[in-house]
Amino acid sequence: MTWGRDFMPWLVSLAGMTTLLWLFYWMIAPGKPVVREFIYKQTSQANLAIRVFLPSDWAPHNQRPAILFFFGGGWIGGGIDHFKWQADVLAREGMVAALVDYRVDSRHHTTPDAAVADGFDAFNWLLENANRFGIDPKKIISSGSSAGGHIAACLALCTLPPGIKTPGERPALLVLFNPVLDLTNATPDLEFSPRELELIAMMSTETVAAISPNQHVDNHTPPSLLIFGDLDPLTQQGEQFSRMAEAAGVETRTEIFPKQKHGFFNREPWRSHTMRSVKQYLQERGYLNK
Known about the structure:
Structural class: alpha/beta
Largest sheet: 8 strands, mixed
Distance between the termini: 42 Å
Shape: globular
Radius of gyration: 19 Å
Number of strands: 8
CATH topology: Rossmann fold
């Protein structure tokens, strides 16, 4: 108990210092991104939007890397604004960033396979509009957290849902925040909620396997950065992904933050710490300038 009381002022101070550093960054960073929103898909439940963050010095003839973000929420809730902060940061660094809306149980009464289908359609839309936004179609990164991380990984690894056309490319990199990587072994011990387990049970066994990224890891898996807290049971799925990918000759990096639970990266100082890890990884891969 004494350790907790002593530690909290330090943590509050660190969070405040981190906030000040980011405010300073915003003062000296390149200009504010241009943000545009489009409908990428019409469904019987709703029209689905994609919000594109373009660097201030953007031009259609550019060949810039892009990153596609999918929000978390257990296929039940969540919203398109989830990764707005990260999209803004990366657009200021010169990348095109996009936030994707997709169907979820609470608003559209759908199961995870519909969310995955939406993810593929959003990726296809971005590929089709690559020249419009100055994007290099061979340098699109798929990213997201939790259920959104599941969708992001499916774009690179999973069988195409029925009715979805084959993309001209697959994601070149994965950047995943505490992703769900396997639905075939979903249990309460891994902190799947009762409703999440119900949604998975509504799908056929074949569909569940088809949209479980860990069931499809091979030498075509793209290089991947995985970020977890060590108190998140889903770390087990991430470690399995890394073992299989590395056995197939694929470079992966897993960063595990101590004493942190699922979703820790959404708050400071961890939001900034994980963003620093993402930027370093993208710089090393040649997607951001150092």
